[in-house]
Structures are given as C-alpha cells and as structure tokens.
Design goal:
The chain is mainly alpha-helical. The protein is built from 7 helices and 5 strands, in the order αβαβαβαββααα.
Length: about 170
C-alpha cells in the first residue's frame, strides 16, 4: 500500500481529483495498518483517501471494485494475486506490479499496465497514463475482462486441473 499512497501523493498536486481507496482488514496486522494511517496523514492525503479497515464478505467485495475507475495492485512480492483478476472480471483496467505473479500472464498495455515493483515513479506514471487516456482505460478494461473470461473461469480451472491429473 505504501507505493500506492506515495504515487497518489506525487500526483496529487497536478491531479487533486484522484482518490485512493484502500481495502484491507486492520485486524490482520494492526502495526502495519497504523503505519499506513500515519503515512496517509503525513503526506496530507486524508481527504483524498478512503480506508476500509474491515473484512469484506465476498458477496459485497464487488462493490469496491465497482467504485474504482482503475484498480492498482502494487503488491510485491506476491506469488499470484486474485484481486486484479476479480477487478478485470468486473471490467476495470488494472495496474499491476511486476513483483506480483499475476503480472506473468498479463500483457503490458493490452490486458493491464505493468510497472517495475517498488518503483513509485513507475506506478505514478501508469496511474497518470490511465487518468489522462480514456481510450486506453477502456481498451485495457475490455481486453482484461475478455482475458479473464477466456482463461480464468471456474470451468477453465477445472479443465486444466483434470488435464494435470490425467497427465500425472
């Protein structure tokens, strides 16, 4: 979350309309949550940040994806990352760190915007690019949704698992 906060802080002087929504259960790591709250306050982003500090039931999670114009997944390292695919399934353009396993199957500029992990400048540039280019936002959202529907449905997962079992 630090990279997303820092990227929004860097962009804020030129783009005061950008609002960061952070969803995460504070109870999982109260020390980390306190550090995130402090960083938001220190950077003067309190009025431009919405924090959801609770567990969100799966049946309600889609509302938070729907609330965003762009979904940012700055996680690094992250072995996979389901969240970007959930956002893509709901027609949201995504920005994903190359430190997340999800980046290995996404195409930069086509199904997502990818940036080098832990590079706040790269994340800020990606956010700015999508903020300023509605056509690119729409293209990535459309391509990302098509990709998820083609490769990441429960049916496709079951088919791949059965093929692996048959091969084994």
């Amino acid at each position: 979350f630090e990279d997303a906060i820092d990227a929004v802080a860097a962009l804020h002087p030129r783009y005061p309309d950008i609002v960061l929504i952070i969803v995460g259960a504070t109870a999982l790591d109260p020390v980390y949550a306190a550090a995130i709250h402090s960083r938001i306050d220190t950077l003067g982003l309190r009025a431009h940040t919405i924090e959801v500090n609770d567990f969100i039931p799966d049946r309600e999670l889609y509302r938070y994806y729907q609330a965003c114009d762009v979904f940012v997944f700055p996680n690094s390292p992250q072995t996979w990352g389901l969240a970007p695919f959930e956002a893509m399934a709901l027609d949201k353009p995504v920005i994903v760190s190359r430190g997340a396993g999800a980046s290995e199957v996404l195409r930069n500029g086509e199904t997502a915007l990818l940036y080098e992990a832990c590079r706040v400048d790269g994340l800020a540039k990606a956010i700015e690019k999508l903020h300023n280019d509605a056509s690119l936002r729409n293209t990535i959202a459309r391509n990302g949704a098509a990709y998820v529907r083609q490769y990441h449905t429960w049916e496709r997962y079951a088919e791949r698992m059965l093929a692996l079992y048959a091969h084994a």
